[in-house]
């Protein structure tokens, strides 16, 4: 930095000095010219006037007068002296001391006499600069009788020029000082300071201290560097956290699953094979915002679990390109490398027309299969046109996958969810050597419910193209096997939980999904007091409350939101002392609003909240706060951290991640989970208060029980639930699923059973 300062200062000084000297030189020159012409004019006037006087003296023969004049005008006002000469150049009278240097034969005098014209010339007399002017002398008859020489000392002009240059050099010196000072200050403030702070930040990150990110101003100066530094810093932080966790686990001899462990495990299992993941929703969405392209990651545990695997094995994720700027960010093969800040795997986007999306996604998947699989008393709608789109879109994904897998000796395919029931068969028929798993995230109903679907055979046959079919819980596996048994010609092996159809075997196994669990995630700042944070949040909401309950859901009719509100109403009725004290906050993310049933349901939820609020509210207190908008992950975490209780009252749910997220967020081991028995999570989180959401009154009682629970019991329950989620986190889920799929491939059937997760939840 010192060298940079010196260079900057040197360059500025040289530049400014050159400019100053050039402009001063120009100024000096014009000043000099003006002094010269001033002197010429003065000398001419004086010469003329002295000549006229001398002529008079000569005419009258008054020599003493002439001598007196010469004496008087010598050595005054820059005048060195003068001489009066005859026509032949003989000196008549000359200032004493000048006669040796002013001969009558001097060129200017001769020129003046001969040409009958005054002459002037700047010259030197010895070391002295002088101006010599010569004027002819006339007789009365206008004949030239001689000449007069007047000599001015030009030393005063040199002094003046010297003075100007001195002033210029003083100015330049002052400028140099000022420029140096300003440059040093600018370098300090704008360069050295920010760089030192960023360096300090990097040092803290490297050494693992609590790193304080420099302010926006510092990073603003390093704007080109900032986008690189921030992810680098984040990667370092993550790498350090992962390494610390690994070390901790090694020391504690624990076997907690981490992203790193999952990546190693899967890389091992894949043994060089490539992994292909298919889902409807993509992991990165590009959208236009303020004339710039913005990239976002949909809030989903799936991305967290799948991404480390794909990064580790350089895999491919195939998904619907749904962002309005998605097309602008792919290459000519509709691919792009992600994550954007550290590209490690390929995202292949599949484009769907508005009609295809309407029929396949909104229609068949969400108006047909979703209510069909969730027994939540909403009638499924099956339209032939939707089915056609569903079939065609599955076909489109199959073609894309086959294209992506071209030349792969042992591709491994992991298909996500009910949007792609037909895909396993479509891919298996074309690439029999591919190992295919599909994970069904929603429940599988009993055969009687499923058989109302006009295309039940096609769906089952499509799914049975997979080598492995995963559900959250064993009960859904059993329902699926029962459905197959009833509908298709296939051999169901109840001992091994598998189906053999046309010589192809599919294992049907439970893999209970989970969430990330980390002692300290970046979203959860340590050391924040829940009570303080709760008071702050209550203030922000502009309400008054002492006890807080929270619910976090997409506003979906399967989630039991209305039943939950009614349970709050029942609780307040039966425990009036909590009126004015207990507030239930529902974070409701808008979802599938284009479907009429969803739009109606969202209005019903709003109306129910309003009805209950109108009945009980007083002052600033309200029993229900319904926030119908998407919240970001940090906001959701904040609500989890401050809530005395969390309510998950789904009427039917494959797993329900909110229940596990609430548990994972409670580092303080406080808080009570009220959990519907109709969720997959209820089969793992025994220490929640398990409720039947259809029984409004007893769900209301559960709220009272939660609020009145002894702290010791609360901590005990939460601690046990946290241990369960920690041991069976999202990485464990992904590791088990892919591990099982890879085992199937290597040793077929027997090994698949060997790799079933060691803790299959007990059937209800
Ligand atoms: C299916 C199955 C199964 C909700 N609102 C906001 C928000 N969320 C997040 C929650 C949670 C996720 O959405 C919802 O998880 P659920 O498990 O309740 O699931 P579904 O969307 O119905 O998903 C379900 C799941 O697949 C996984 O297999 O468990 O049974 O139905 O993570 O936190 N997230 C943010 N803002 C919100 O407003 N950021």
Note down, in words, how this protein is organized.
- The chain folds into three domains: 2-159, PAS domain (Beta-Lactamase, 2-Layer Sandwich), CATH 3.30.450; 268-510, Rossmann fold, CATH 3.40.50.2000; 530-727, Glycogen Phosphorylase B (Rossmann fold), CATH 3.40.50.2000.
- By secondary structure, the protein is α/β, with parallel strands linked by helices.
- The chain has a ten-stranded mixed β-sheet with strand order 10-11-9-6-12-13-14-17-16-15, with helices on both faces. Strands 20-19-18-21-22-23 form a six-stranded parallel β-sheet, with helices on both faces. The protein has a five-stranded antiparallel β-sheet with strand order 2-1-5-4-3, sandwiched between helices.
- β3 (119-125) and β4 (128-138) form a beta hairpin.
- The chain is built from 23 helices and 23 strands.
- α1 (2-59) runs antiparallel to α4, α9 (354-373) crosses α10 and α16 crosses α20 (696-707).
- It binds GDP-alpha-D-glucose.
- The site of GDP-alpha-D-glucose has 22 residues, from β18, β19, α18 and α19.
